[in-house]
Specification:
The protein is an alpha/beta fold. The protein has a domain of 197 residues: Cholesterol Oxidase, domain 2 (2-Layer Sandwich), CATH 3.30.410. Helices cover 21% and strands 19% of the residues. The protein contains 10 helices and 18 strands. Strands 1, 2, 5, 6, 7, 8 and 18 form a 7-stranded mixed sheet that branches. The chain has a 6-stranded antiparallel sheet with strand order 4-11-12-13-10-16, covered by helices on one side. The protein is globular. It binds flavin-adenine dinucleotide (FAD) and iron/sulfur cluster. The site of iron/sulfur cluster (SF4) has 13 residues, from loops.
């Protein structure tokens, strides 16, 4: 990719747009704006890890911790990013801050689900939170476009809770344990469908199909898994309108006398030099915690509380998914000859079903992802106890019966959960670190308890040894944190309008998950990309009209 050497603000050209962050959100905006003729510079704090350098296909015995402790993902978390954060007054949650070209799409699991009509209507449907400033119908054309852009396998199952598109690649075939699970859930009136994933099951967009190695979450070295660095940025690059700065950690968004964004100050983390770029529009795509941190660190006389933060909402309403699932070792498959069932991690999905059983005393629900953990690693070995030949025999016998159900549940978007910055503690580049404050609500606890009960009920309809992973209380956020720079109808409780545009700074946009008003049980990234696409269209239109 083209890389420029940086200079001071006065010497550099003024770009039409500066995009900060190259993940799911940044990739979409870059491609769209460049193809629309805008001159774009992207600042990315990390640098490229070429697919040839991924550790996905390393055998456990080739790695000191056998692939545990995030060994295979470590190259994607560059610098001291994992440690330059504090959790204070917090339940058991963690946020995922990556530093690599492509962001978390480099090693995500790629389950892509549309939000349903009701997911945009927290207040009118469930009486909690607020309605979004846009509806499903308004976002639907963008879901359709983004699904075609990234390539999604799956099918339309006619379920209102998981609205479907019109252009899916063939679904992933079901494995033995998934057929057995289907038998059980069918008897309980719980739907089970083919998963929708940004994984190619045929050649698509000049990328090869999946070869079912099961290593998506360590990085896909052939590009069958959608990755912004592989499937989006090269398209931006081909327009000749794209400039990429890697190792460029944005420190502050700079403003002019009117308080509008005029550029970005960043640290070249290799040269350890502060530099600046000028831009007419700034699009923030650093992900939920980093984007809030950037705005809060961007203080000026016009924006003394941080950029676009006169109402104090920036950083607030942090939330994400609560988790906790079960591993089951099915008797029916016990002792079967070992064979490679890894596939493309999940092949089926259990959409939200708690609403089918009538009113609950809490709002929201959960979905169940199935078998996203690798078959290669004997996850049960440390749990069953014993030693010697008999122990090894038992581990081997159980392995073919492995079935995993991973729950992703809604949490409530509340102003009392927030990210702030710590002025007295800085990272290795001298930038104030983020501090996370989060407590689960009564609603979250009630949902979590009902989810655990329901999972055990499903297990009781399956014959096998069950290992629940619920803990004593909910935990989060499964890399699905959202909500800190939210869009909304009410200017007192939101920062952005429905086009991801800051109300107080009209040439500032935030399109990553921090813009969510609330969240559902569905994984957020397809919605992040659809919102980014919509924001990009809006920016193009506003530029055409001379408004930006
Ligand atoms: C293992 C795993 C599995 C997942 N599975 C799924 C799934 O199945 N479905 C789903 O919907 N989601 C999944 N996710 C979550 C998904 O990856 C994220 O929701 C998505 O990548 C968010 O996109 P983003 O652009 O907002 O942020 P990111 O992809 O995190 O990108 C942010 C980028 O900004 C850069 N950056 C941050 N701060 C700065 C700064 N100050 N200056 C410059 N650059 C900066 C980062 O280096 C990064 O490249 C998964 C994540 C992981 C880790
Ligand atoms: S399972 Fe398929 S999509 Fe996942 S890493 Fe392997 S080839 Fe890529």
């Amino acid at each position: 990719m083209g890389v420029v050497e940086g200079d001071t603000l006065s010497q550099t050209p003024t770009y039409d747009a500066c995009i900060i962050g190259s993940g799911a959100a940044g990739g979409v905006v870059a491609k769209e704006l460049c193809e629309g003729g805008a001159k774009v510079i992207m600042l990315e704090a990390g640098r490229e890890v070429p697919p040839g350098k991924f550790l996905s296909h390393k055998w456990p015995y080739e790695l000191p911790y056998r692939g545990l402790r995030g060994e295979k993902q470590a190259p994607f978390y560059q610098g001291g990013v994992s440690t330059s954060i504090r959790y204070e007054d917090c339940d058991s949650v963690s946020v995922d801050r990556i530093r690599v070209l492509g962001g978390r799409t480099v090693h995500w699991n790629a389950v892509v689900l549309r939000y349903a009509q009701r997911d945009f209507k927290g207040w009118s449907a469930d009486g909690i939170e607020e309605d979004w400033p846009l509806t499903y119908d308004e976002l639907e054309p963008y879901y359709e476009r983004i699904e075609q852009m990234i390539g999604v396998c799956g099918q339309d199952d006619g379920l209102e809770i998981v609205p479907a598109g019109k252009h899916y690649l063939p679904p992933l075939p079901w494995r033995c344990s998934e057929h057995i699970l289907h038998r059980a859930t069918n008897g309980m009136g719980i739907p089970l469908i083919s998963v929708r994933k940004a994984v190619l099951t045929t050649v698509y967009d000049s990328r090869p199909p999946c070869h079912y190695c099961g290593h998506c979450m360590s990085g896909c070295d052939v590009g069958a898994l959608f990755n912004s660095a592989v499937a989006m940025l090269p398209k931006a690059q081909r327009t000749g309108n794209f400039t990429l700065r890697q190792n460029a950690l944005a420190r502050e968004i700079l403003v002019d006398r009117e308080g509008l964004a005029r550029g970005v100050s960043f640290v070249d983390t290799q040269a350890k030099r502060e530099q600046e770029v000028k831009a007419r529009v700034v699009v923030v795509c650093c992900a939920t915690v980093e984007s809030a941190r950037l705005l809060l660190n961007s203080r000026s006389p016009r924006h003394p509380n941080g950029l676009a933060n006169s109402n104090g909402v920036v950083g607030r309403y942090l939330h994400g998914h609560l988790g906790g699932g079960v591993d089951i070792f099915l008797k029916e498959l016990e002792g079967a000859p070992p064979f490679n069932q890894d596939g493309a991690t999940d092949h089926v999905y259990i959409p939200r079903y708690n609403h089918l059983a009538g009113e609950k005393d809490y709002a929201g629900g959960w979905g169940l992802q199935v078998n996203f953990s690798s078959y290669m690693f004997p996850n049960h070995a440390s749990r069953i106890g014993g030693y010697g030949v008999a122990y090894k025999e038992r581990v081997r016998k159980m392995q073919p019966g492995y079935l995993m159900l991973g729950a992703f549940g809604k949490t409530e978007a509340r102003p009392e959960n927030y990210v702030t910055v710590e002025p007295h503690q800085v990272d290795e580049n001298g930038i104030s670190i983020p501090v996370v404050h989060f407590r689960f609500s009564e609603n979250d606890f009630a949902l979590w308890r009902d989810k655990n009960r329901s999972l055990m009920e499903i297990c009781s309809n399956l014959k096998g040894e069950v290992f629940p992973d619920f803990g004593e209380a909910p935990g989060g956020f499964a890399s699905h944190e959202v909500g800190t720079i939210r869009m909304g109808k009410n200017p007192r409780t939101s920062v952005l309008n429905g086009f991801c545009q800051a109300r107080e700074v009209k040439n500032l946009f935030v399109t990553d998950g921090s813009c969510f008003t609330s969240s559902s049980e569905k994984n957020p990234t397809l919605t992040i990309m659809a919102l980014s696409l919509r924001a990009a269209d809006y920016i193009k239109e506003q530029r055409r009209r001379g408004e930006l």
